[in-house]
Amino acid sequence: MARSSEVDTNRCWSEFPVGPSCSRFLRLVTAEKPIFLRRIGVLEAADLAAVGETWNRQMTL
Fold first, then answer.
1. I need a labelling partner for 8 at 20 to 30 A (CA). Which of 19, 24, 29, 50 fits?
2. Using one digit for the tens of pLDDT, what is the confidence trace for 5-39?
């Protein structure tokens, strides 16, 4: 089962059978969430950098 910070694309396909756009949308939302949290003041700049590094590492696997 996916952790809350991961995108569960299998669940997406079963619950929202709208094709590849659903998976793409979930990846976009996951990528943009830290930026949104930084803008509203929930994340500090250092936290945002750490999230970005983790995201980049996962995307290259």
1. 50
2. 555 545 554 555 555 566 676 676 677 777 777 77
